[in-house]
Amino acid sequence: MGTDIRASHRKSKTTDFSFGLKWLLTDADEFSTEIQYIKADTNSLDSTVSLGVNVPYIDVDVSGGVPTIGVSEQFTANPANYYWGFTMDHQDDNVAEEWAWRADLKHSFDEGVFRSFKFGVRVTDRDATSIDTGYNWKPVFQTWMQWWALPGGVPLPPLNLNGTINDSSVNLNTFQNFYRGGAATPGAFYAPNLDLALGFPGSYQAIHDAAAPFYSCCYAGAYSQTPMDESRTNRQGETTQAAYAMLNFGFDEAFIEGNVGVRVVRTENDASGYLIYPNQPFAPYLGSGQSTPITASNSYTDVLPSVNVKWEPNKNLILRFAASKAIARPAFSDMQAYQVLNAAVKSGVSPDPGEVVPVSDMDLTGSSFDNPYLTPMKANQFDLSLEWYFDPDKGGMAWVNLFHKGVKDYFRRQSQLVSYPGVDGNNYDYLITQPVNVGTAKIQGAEIGWNQFFDFLPAPFDGFGMSANYTYIKSSTSVPNNLDTQPLDTDGSTFGVLPADGLSKNSYNLAGFYEKGPWQIRLAYNWRSEYLLSIGPNGYNGGDGGIAWKLPVYSDAYGQLDGSIFYKITDNIQVGLEMNNLNNAEQRTIMDQNAAGRRVTSWYVNDRRYAATLRLTF
Questions:
Q1: What pTM does this model have?
Q2: How far apart are alpha carbons 471 and 473 in whole angstroms?
Q3: Under DSSP, is residue 333 helix (H, G, I), strand (E, B) or coil?
Q4: Beta bridge partners of residue 520, listed in sequence order
Q5: What does the angle CA 262 – CA 266 – CA 268 come to, to the nearest 5 degrees?
């Protein structure tokens, strides 16, 4: 096992300029336009330095909820039992800019069924340049290095390597008030000092230089930080051109009004980056870390019609119906043209120095999860709602809403073997995981809600009010039966129909508030049942036994209590206290397997958080 210190730093800057114009051409015609320019840049460092400790035993008890972990405290509190484990840095330097322009023209009709006609155009042009080193994990001393890169049959080198890198560079952690006392701690552990993580790259070089005399082969002088050069650079561009037309109509005698319209959107994406080959001394036939440029382009056009109708059978009752076709674009960061190929010696294989390991004893994978050929998810969606405004002047209303969405080109991670050439002229299969458009999803459900101020109560209680809503969602996904896109258990079995990502079957929100005079007080409880987080995220996928398994991971049911108190000193000055997670709620993730069943894999608490706020209004 091991301990580590991890530090990160990010510096970001966003600049936003916009200009808008509104022009009344005639009493019936109105023109408006707006142009916007945004530039954003960010750079960051994520730095980790680790120690290793080979404890004589570990006791793990998960029978009582939060796990109990037991080790020999006497052993872990002795710095002589530790060694330097690894360093790992991750750097990125990104810059992006976007131009956006819109123009709209509206013509109003004086009489008749048609109320107004509106059409317009939208144009965006977005470019981004990203330099990303990936996670540069470099071993210092590891148990699997013994008998070839390090002497075997003896303990790993201790913390005291030289006058700079020694046990003065670590500190003892005793986990005071760990998990707010809600979990048993394993005692005390040594971990690297913070300055080693913050001292990158000099501290990294010092650690690896101090370790060099202890190697039997292969690693002395081998450390180098990943260069932030052209081979780690990805460039992306996206342009969209859209036009829409919308007709507003109304039937006064029937108390019906609405609109019908259509939007046409043309999207063009391009990306350029690099394919980086492995640099594995035991498999020189795969490559030597060389890079090859790759480019990709993608374009598509979407036609998105919509209709909205509102019927008001009496003064305070409204029935609404909406039908439309919509798209949800993939994240811009998921469409990079960039792939890093990795090669690692399989567990249990111990090659001699200089030995060439056959590909059958190597694990070949890709470490990028991007796909520049992704297209949007598309949905046909329908909504029907009934709203009752029983106290419209004070916001008193109740509602019920029914909805249905049919989604296609659903996003799902695909794991498949992809062939890449080696420097020896042969092709080798790497396990590549990336998002793809595959399958469909169906989402349907209902929502009910109620808002009311209790202004019928005597003063000062007439400032109290409440808001409550409940949502039920039934969702399902359907993907092809090919195993590279389906979630797969470690034994090769499948999981059947799964819900859509991020959607809870049941959720509700309950809020009480008080607003009177200068006071605004609010207390709200939000709860949701478990939902699917992801399929096969990091730590829940692998390729053991020739099976590219990826497990579904859920977030357990969770409820959080928040509150706020604000007092208005003047019309322009307001002070307040905002409070989050007052019930100190615990969040858990659940891993699902067919034979082994469901297991909680992580527990975490975000703590209660308080913020004092000063608001100035001009």
A1: 0.83
A2: 7
A3: helix
A4: 515, 566
A5: 160
